[in-house]
């Protein structure tokens, strides 16, 4: 018997299947559509949906004919103590960066094969490029993902690659180019390059390091240059502001290597 089948809990599996299905449907599904997608009886789907609604994991639309995920799972994920503490510590530092740099910034953490945007601060000037908090972005085609891989230990690195699943629009990368990119990051301590997702954006990204010099998270600024008469900080200055922010949040100050 496979290890995964040794301790089966059919009711739990059914509920999780519904949640995972609804997570892929931004506009929700009707009960009939859920039954069809899951290939189960209408009665068992109805009972499970009613329990998920009662526990507020799933919500009905005002007309009552469609079901969609509530924000409860998102709220629970952000209550996770280590992530919550990291976000609470990062937000004032990120806000200070945004004010000095006049750019937005976001914090990325590893999540199930890709990168979760755990925190995001907009530029106070109103002109910026931003990635929404809660969004998942690619592990293999973003600055955040490459920083997390570059500063992962060998075991975590292999696990992250094994868990990776391509996201919509992901830009492919060869193993040779990936290794060259990661080696360059380790050499200089950060990554700065044209965005692989948006024209005219330069991604600047630094790792937030733990005591063992692995990346707990990343700080990334999607830098955009103003071309009107406003004179803002140059990209070189923005890079240094971001370096200082990542260093302030890292746990390596005074113990081994700091952010380069």
TrEMBL record:
Gene3D superfamilies (alphabetical): 3.30.450.40, Winged helix-like DNA-binding domain superfamily/Winged helix DNA-binding domain
Residue ranges annotated for the IclR-ED domain, each copy included: 72-255
The entry's keywords: DNA-binding, Transcription, Transcription regulation
SMART domains (alphabetical): HTH_ICLR
Origin superkingdom: Bacteria
Segments forming domain HTH iclR-type: 9-71
Gene Ontology biological process terms, A to Z: negative regulation of DNA-templated transcription
Short name of one Pfam family: HTH_IclR
Gene Ontology molecular function: DNA binding; DNA-binding transcription factor activity
PANTHER family (alphabetical): HELIX-TURN-HELIX TRANSCRIPTIONAL REGULATOR, ICLR FAMILY, HTH-TYPE TRANSCRIPTIONAL REGULATOR KDGR-RELATED
The protein's name: IclR family transcriptional regulator
The species this protein was found in: Rhodoferax saidenbachensis
Classification lineage: Bacteria, Pseudomonadati, Pseudomonadota, Betaproteobacteria, Burkholderiales
């Amino acid at each position: 018997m496979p290890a995964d089948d040794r301790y089966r809990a059919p009711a739990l599996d059914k509920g999780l299947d519904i949640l995972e299905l609804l997570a892929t449907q931004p506009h929700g599904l009707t009960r009939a559509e859920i039954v069809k997608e899951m290939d189960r009886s209408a009665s068992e789907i109805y009972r499970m949906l009613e329990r998920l609604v009662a526990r507020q994991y799933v919500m009905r639309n005002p007309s009552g004919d469609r079901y969609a995920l509530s924000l409860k799972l998102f709220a629970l994920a952000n209550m996770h103590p280590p992530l919550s503490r990291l976000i609470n510590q990062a937000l004032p530092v990120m806000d200070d960066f945004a004010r000095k740099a006049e750019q937005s910034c976001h914090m990325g953490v590893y999540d199930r094969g890709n990168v979760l945007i755990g925190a995001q601060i907009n530029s106070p000037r109103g002109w910026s490029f931003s990635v929404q908090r809660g969004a998942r972005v690619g592990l293999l085609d973003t600055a955040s993902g490459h920083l997390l891989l570059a500063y992962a230990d060998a075991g975590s690195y292999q696990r992250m690659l094994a868990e990776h699943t391509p996201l919509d629009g992901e830009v492919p990368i060869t193993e040779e180019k990936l290794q060259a990119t990661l080696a360059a990051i380790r050499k200089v301590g950060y990554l700065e390059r044209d965005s692989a997702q948006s024209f005219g954006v330069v991604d600047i990204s630094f790792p937030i390091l733990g005591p063992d010099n692995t990346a707990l998270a990343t700080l990334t600024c999607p830098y955009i240059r103003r071309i009107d008469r406003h004179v803002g900080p140059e990209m070189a200055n923005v890079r240094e502001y971001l370096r200082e922010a990542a260093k302030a949040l890292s746990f390596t100050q005074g113990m081994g290597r700091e952010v380069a």
